[in-house]
Every structure is written in structure tokens, then in C-alpha cells.
Amino acid sequence: MARPYDPDTFTAHRRLFWISAVFAVIMLAPVAWIVGLSFKDNAELMVGTQSVFSPPYTLANYVNIFKSSSVFGWLWNSIIVATGQTIGVLILSSMAGYAFARLEFPFRKTLFIIVLFGLAVPEQAIIIARHQMFNWFALHNTYLGLILPGMSSAFGVYLMTQFFRAIPKEIDEAALLDNASAWRIFWKVLLPLTLPAQATLGIFTFLMAWNDYWWPLISATKKEMFTLTIGIASSQSNFAQSEGLGFLTAQAVFASLPVVVVYIFFQRHIVTAVSGGAVK
Length: 280
What we know:
single chain, mainly alpha, MetI-like fold, about 70% helix
């Protein structure tokens, strides 16, 4: 049976729609501006950027990326670093979350509190000690040196712990009746139920690793080890003058495409995790 028409509800929904639309336009305006600049001729942009939303447009900036830019090497570095950090965070956070939520061991609560302290300690507070440690082990300008710091995720451990706690313990008891070990319960029974949380954590980790600027700026001093964020930042004083603003913004748009693809592919898992529909 259809619901009766309510003018007040309809008006409230319409106002909410327009408010959301205004904020969406404000957030998307800088993105549209960058995309528009990437399709403009560099000589025209040298005069001014007022014509960004008026023709003519050109693909020359994107063609130049495929011809002579170093962006592909930086892109490959970012893919390796972001993927490595994501896999490492998912493995370590899932195992730690299962241990904190399901297993009994000495000082479990104390260790969990120590892990939570990691959420409050800023990265800048430990950067000197980390730099010295990685220098001692000669890990700077290596993929391992770029990946390892991002694998320690206090947020990931907390998220997976809370998610494992939300799973009914009757599932564990049923598996124990079938003589399943703790590892088998984790790997075969509980871990598949955490897919929405893992997808959410994986996306957030991938985005943070992809956009990370602070640690790669310190650890990667050789151009061939630059990630996209460092490479594009180094181009601002070079390509922006020699190649033009349009070429620089085309690099930025090209660099953001993998992130957009990852988010579009996994967004349904984020919705499932947020709505609490992981365990039925």
C-alpha cells in the first residue's frame, strides 16, 4: 500500500537535496577546474586561466605523458608501495583483531590499550627515530623502506577487533564441536565474514598510502624511487615552467585515476560495512 502524501516531508527532503547539491558543487569545483586545465593549451594558459571552461580543448598534454614523462615510473612505484602496505595491513590487522577479540592471553587488555595509543601519537613525533632506524638498516630508497612504516596500523587493528567482536560467538562454538582449531576457525569461518570490513580498511589504507607525502619525501631521495606524490611535487618547479601548467595538471589527473577506479570497484563493500550488514 502506497504511503500517503506528506507535504512537509516532501519539502524537507527537497531542502536537504538542494543543500547537499550546493555542498557537492563546492567540493567538485576544484576537481572540475583541474580537469579543465589539463585539456587546455599551455600557451593559452600562460596568458591566463580564465578560459578554462571554454573551447578549444586539446589532448596534447595527455599525449606528452605517454611520450616523455617520468610519471609511469612514479606510478609503478606508487602501485607497489600502496599495494604492499594494503596487503600488509590487512594481514596483520586481521590476525591481531582476531587475537584481541577471540583469544585469551596474558596482558591482552594492556596490549590493546597500547595499540590504541598509536591512534593518538602523530607520525611527526617519531619521524626522527624512524629515519635513524631505517638508515641503520640501509632501507632508504627501497620499496621495503617505503612499505614497512605503513603496515603498522592502529586504526586497522581497532577496526578488525571491533568487527570480530560483533560476530556471534556461537559460530566459534559450532566450529569447536567439529574439532576445528583456532587457526581453522579464524581462516575458514570468521575471516570470510569480515570481507566488508577488510574492503573498507583496504580502501582507506590504499588511499592513504597512495597520497602519502611525508614519509616518501624523507625516505626516497633518488628520482627513480619517487612515488607519484613526490614526483609531481618535484615537477612543479620544472615542468610547470618548461612544459606548462596544462601538462602538470594532466599528470595530476592521470595520477588520480587508479584511486578513482579502486573506490568505484569497492564502494559497495564500504556501504555494507557502514550499514552493519556484515553478519546476518
